[in-house]
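Before going further, learn to read the protein records used in this course. The integers have meaning only within a learned vocabulary of local backbone shapes. The record below shows the convention in full.
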Amino acid sequence: MRVSYAWLRELLPGLTVPPAELADRMTRLGLLVEEVLPAARGLDSVVLGRVTGVAPHPSADRLKLCSVETAPGQARRIVCGAPVVKEGAFYPVALPGAALPNGLTVRVSEIRGVRSEGMLCSAPELGLEHLGSAEGILEVDPNGGAPGAPIASVLHLDDTILVLEIPSNRPDWESHLGVARELQELAGGRMRRPGVTQTPAAAEGPAASVSQAGGVRVTLLDPEGCPRYTGRVIRGLRVGPSPLAVQQRLFALGVRPINNVVDATNHVLLEVGTPLHAFDLARLAGGEICVRRAEPGERLVTLDGRERTLDGETTVIADRDRAVAVGGVMGGRDSEVSAATRDVFLEAALFDPLRIRRAVSRLGLRTEASSRFGRGVDPMVVPTGRERACGLILEWSGGSAEPEVADVGAAPGPRPSLELRPERVAAVTGLALDAARVREALVAVDLPVSRRDGVLAVTVPGHRFDLAREIDLVEEVARRVGYDRVPATPLADPAGVRPPGEDAALARLRDTLRGLGLDEACTSTFFDPAPFGPGFFEGRLLEQVNPLAQNEPFLRPTLAATMVEAARHNLRRGAPGVAFFEIGHVFARRQAGDPEDVPGAAGDLPRLPGVDERGRLGILLAGTIGVPHWSGSGKEVPADVYDVKGVAEALLGPSRSLSAAPSGHAWLHPGQQAELRVEGRSLGFLGRLHPSVERALDFEVPVLVADLELAPFLAPRPAPRFAALSPYPRVERDLALVVSDATTAAAVEELLRRSAPADLVELRLFDVYRGDPVPSGARSLAFRLVFQSADRTLTEDDVERGMASVRAALAEAGIRLRS
């Protein structure tokens, strides 16, 4: 939301706080100001110039030599190629050194042998495309200014724009009147409300479902989607450009000027927050307006030129023959106001916020009007906005307004009242405020307050949709008094507080992962599957009906799907590597055989039918994760799959062994992925992203991920038991085995452990070899077996008997020793 400082001063005549200080005060009130921008950015060295002479260029037929007065009594020569330049006219002149909004820097230059000391500017060169094209220079009305006057003041751009971030529960701040209401205390409590010069001759009151005004019959058939609809006919208009000051103000606030009728409706939208729409009356078939639901499949070409297919849940404004607007969202092209328009029907209405938000999502059509209707519009301001716009249209376009007003639907009900206990304010905020100070804080923002039986009765105005309970009023008082005045109360013993039960296990797991050098990531639940290629969790992806972002329509089936975005963000900003973990939920379409209840799956969350939701642990490593040491012992080595497997092994501890089995995820590297198992049960999977996925996501380093079941890491661990170290020597034996490529090293290791005697204390794979004399399709695996007894020295016969048992088991399994 963009707000004009000059406009605020018109509404608050006593406002003297400069823009930068005002921005700070607004932020303290919760009106977050993101930027403070001059409306005339890039025009600091552009002045008003008057052409005092025009002569042909001696060396170029298409160029002219202009003598331009850029200060009283001071002229400079400027070479110009515009054929429309004329003597006595006023133009914007960019002086040498000017850095224009289009990126051009003006310098003294020599053009075809003639020195040129500046530039006569076109509208686009000044960043004002709405005032003209790039084919000619911009002729301006001096507006009483003398040559040399800053062009910003001549073009009504001497203003400052405040860019606000409006929270979703404060739609009243989406207008200058709403912002001024918050700031009136800074202006001595005086606020000048916009004048309404046009009022209906007849008494105004909502009818049931049919009304007539100015020869237009209005019928309301969808009161759920449109609780109230009003309109007025204006005849004899002259459609053309709005006053320059109005065009410039709209443009500076991000609204494209169109014509004096449409600009009047947009002006009122930004001023008081009431969306309006004007229909060309001559293009409404039958002189009728009908507010109804769209017919399923009904089509409408909207003002943006796109044809929309509507459904039965969309409210439309229709004439006798067809829909002419999507109610509360956008008008139709066939009824828009044009230069040929002479009579208009001016609409002001209320639309159901939920229906508006759904229509916006279905149609992919977000507008200034739908933004406000989707959050809520003050019912009391609808007729005010209509009459304000009617007055501006008559002022800028001429014509006359018909005295009758069409008004159908329900009248606004009585405003609710809330009770506020002053002592409750003190108890919640810690502020020592008496009833008088509480009342003063509320009255400052136009909240009517009366005293009743020791409590304050607060009447909630129509624009305050956020006030529904007493605690909302407590928050309002704290906001107005100042959150910075709320006393800070430290926790008694924050370090000693530990959550109970599963929360404590999660806290221990997080501590362990941080101790292993990983940082916790908190990523979005929604993602785009396109970079992962076709077939990514095929048939199991869950698509949102109403996605928050059009490029993230699916719920993540694995934590890796969203963690990669966090990794990419960090690596793009110069991080040599990332080591992340995340504990969160994943979602997939339920299939036959999925367990009904998974420990650690979704906690106490309600289960959705057909949805498999589980809690998972995600790990991601990419790039260099070690810290190099000055001695050279810490080398910058990129992470690999064994680093990820090592994290899982460290979390499980020595009491549970981790094994790996082949897996076949198409989006992971075919030779660097595995399914992890603990005691024969699947724990999850790990692997490196497929090179095509890494390229699609613009990664320049390998990215390793793991997606693991959460429950095994939260299970209680047995207390550690210590045994005395054996004082007897260790005996080592090496075995080099020839195994087929289809046989995993983990399977061979398991066979060795089962067949070896109890004195086997260590088993380690230390070499893998392919090549002559090992046959094709096989490889050599070399294991080291370490034997040690706790109560005696092992003899050669003891060790040989154990090795004989191992060799026999290998022979039975068809695994031969490498000669």
Summary: The CA atoms of residues 250 and 257 lie 6 Å apart. Residues 597-604 have pLDDT under 50 and may be disordered. The longest helix spans residues 796-812. The longest strand covers residues 577-589.
